[in-house]
């Protein structure tokens, strides 16, 4: 009876796709094209590759420790409570930001609805910023996101599975229709200068700053729901690979369709001057495909809505999991005895999401913050995966990755580069937000009389120093990435790569056995026992 309530492989792939295909596809192709021109197609490939390499590390860890909010716990197992707190705080910041992002995206598109009866919605947005009237609608949507998750996992899974078909189908339909209606492969250019009209640096910058990393981020939805998945040792890895592969193919073809469908007249002043508020819907209207534009306006409500619902689930589990670090109030980690859901965490996240919208009232501002926070959280994944092999070689690994020793440092380097590509001053702003969590950590350490603090501090020192170093490099870096151009492009990339390799090795050497690792051993033993029982 218990297993029937858990999610199948199909359900988790649908939930992940519902999370992955949100507002990113509605805005990302346009944002990337403005920055990089037709070379934006490479930005999606690079972004997808970076996220896949990051996810590769988490497949091994996630199947070893299938637990609710797992992304918030793994660094704690390998490096103690301080690094665990930094990783969890970064991950939580990135997850909680997605909730208002999708609510804002929904309202932003509502404000452009073309129907006469929807004129009231046009007052929801002014100059790309949500108005006070729009803010009330955003708050209402965040509350609805939360209520759908509040009642049960089954309700949330059924809801997201249902709308996932629509969310997947419409981007595919858009690709086919606008390609047949307007196909100009010459928009890619006939030489390198036309393909890279603004150089190669904007291709990299677009990866982090045009919503691309954000669009691929949702693979961790599967990780954070590990304890609620049927056969997690088998389905976690398959779910991540399938969802990333399907969404990646859709995103790349969407970008290509956007580039080739663009009328030559719209490009008279260059890609940087494309001015769309509802990119694919506006393009459909330009091409005279009004019925598709109507569908796109509807989907601009459905897609962000589905993603918002999924991430309320993921963010609440991440926050509840942080309480086990003993550096947050106990009520945050409370699990409802009737529904087995972190209801208190859902309410806290909803309240903080509403507060966040008061300060960041546009999609682009919110996605910029999210991408950098997400990448900082992901820095810990490769280090943790390799460190756990050193600390616990005897741990049961349902999936033991053969290429981990190569992929882990590569993923760490690429993640570091993507943080740098987020542009100054975004880098220092997000790092500052993450470091703001440290006083909370120290407050609870003081209540525990700083027992084991020195060990935990030494194990986390590499990350604290690295965040400072990344900030300095970002400030001194190339003008293409918002810096003062003391480190010119592409030598700034070389500096980041060398720094990343140094700190990756420091991170591996800083791994330490703590009481948290003993808890991880106990959880892993249950996974091994379950796998053995299934085989018999």
UniProtKB/TrEMBL annotation:
Q: How does it sit in the membrane?
A: Multi-pass membrane protein
Q: Which UniProt keywords apply?
A: Membrane, Transmembrane, Transmembrane helix
Q: Which residues cross the membrane?
A: 7-27, 39-59, 80-104, 124-150, 162-183, 195-219, 240-260, 344-363, 369-391, 403-421, 427-444, 456-476, 488-508
Subcellular compartments = Membrane
Q: Which GO terms describe its molecular function?
A: transmembrane transporter activity
Give the highest taxon in the source lineage.
Bacteria
Main subcellular localisation: membrane
Gene Ontology annotations for the cellular component aspect, listed alphabetically: membrane
Transmembrane listed as a keyword: yes
Q: Does the keyword Transmembrane helix apply?
A: yes
Record-linked PANTHER family = ASPARTATE-PROTON SYMPORTER (PTHR47547:SF1), PTHR47547
Protein name per its UniProtKB record? APC family amino acid-polyamine-organocation transporter
